[in-house]
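The freezer alarm interrupted the setup, so I double-checked each line after restarting. Inputs confirmed:
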Amino acid sequence: MAADAPTRPSPTVTDDSAVFWDAAAEGRLVAQRCAGCGRLRHPPRPMCPACSSLEVEIAELSGQGTLYSYAILHHPQHPAFEYPVIAALVDLEEGIRLLSCLTDVSKDDVRIGMPVHAHFVPTADGPLIPVFRPTEDS
Amino acid sequence: MGRRTLARGAASIVGAGCTEFSRRAGRTELQLACESISAALDDADLAAADVDGIVSYTVDPVEETELVRSVGFEEVNFSARIPYGGGGSVGVLQHAAAAVASGAAEVVVAYRAIRARSGASRFGSAKTAPSPTSGHSGTTAMQWCMPFGVLTPASWMALNSVRYMHEFGVESADFGRAVVQLREYAATNPAAWGFQNPITLDEHQESRWIVEPCIHLLDCCQETDGSVALVITGSQRAADLPHTPVRIGTASTAGLFEQEIASDHYRPDLSVMDGTMALGRRLFEDAGFSRDDIDVALIYDAFSPILLMQLEGLGFCGFGEAKDFIADGSLALDGSLPTNTNGGLIGEGYIHGLNLVLEAVRQLRGTAVNQVADARTAVISASRTGAILTLD
Ligand SMILES: [Zn+2]
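Predicted 3D structure, all chains:
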């Protein structure tokens, strides 16, 4: 099954979210790290909710995580995607959660808690986005 | 201890009205709102000129100015819109009651008009135009979900539902038993989409997957056209009006750090609706009501899994125990907690939650189609906003 339909819509990028999507477009998975207290956060936001700092650094993430939850989407179907879409919540090893989807796995083999890792697929206008597949050597 | 709550019983619902609920209203949301508001004012024996406050949802399409010039309100001194989409639906009561209790307004109309079925954009359609905002509906999903094909409220909520199933050993048939009960109620409600059309558990299980393994077609609410309106005023004035006042015993909003509506994916433990746990604490412990006082419950059921999760979050049963609570018949008219007696959003229709408030009013007036005997106190939960209505 060709999991990576190239027609999926490109993300909407705002000034607040560009830190994530601009890195993803280049095949890098990142999160904001507060320059004041060091906490990672996602989704991105302009202020640290813990210490009110406006200063941020960009943290490179490993892309390794575990599947926190999933959902196998059958209906409605949009022509930009191949069905069923396997939606995923991934808890990354750095301690933040991402919403994405799974590729390269049969829906019957999906298990909560399975190790997964990120790879990147193109969207309609070109930018890459991070999706996940099972980690082979688990 | 010490949390502030709304002044108990200071405001009452004195009028309630609605249009028919249909798949194609054939008229604008503005007209639907006019019709339901007019019906609610007639019901309250009040005139448009008596109204000085209006409250709706941020996502409601009706323009206040057009509404005022259509219904004929003379002077509106208080207006508000509640965020959080359907999760905010009971928030209209909190704002109306707060306005009345504070003196900001004397007579407030709360309304929602929707063409969720025949309108330009159905909630359940596959939309990929990712707006960075959501009409203040409380979800960031438009931006963070859509590039991945996660396009609908069912798909957003399913991620939580699957974790819930995993954590507590809940199965699709457990959701199905709730739906069978809702459809049994709807079958005797002439206003309901499911009128005279009950279902069996087998039919539920055989209906097609929307989202596997948690949401069959029959687990979904019915996108509906229609409008509901309520009239709220001070309980003193309410005593002079024709209907027995339905007091807003308490009404609250509970919003936790990182909590979202529908796309609520960033709280640590998604197997529980901890926002609803906070709401339950606000409605019961903080406001001084007992769960044992509740005669009838109206719980926002856009999809059946969140009905079970709210029963647990509100504290009517333990975590993971809603499936047994339901299997024991608790939600039925002769059960310990008759719930969604109009058929709910799944059985009656989806006026974005406000039809559940309407049903609570009918129950306490004794005019519901599926009437709970001697109902005096009702709880309404839309997961993030809720209220307790009472005759006492
Ligand atoms: Zn910080």
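Quick read of the result. The pocket of zinc ion is lined by residues A 34, 36-37, 39, 48, 50-51, 53 (CB under 6 Å).
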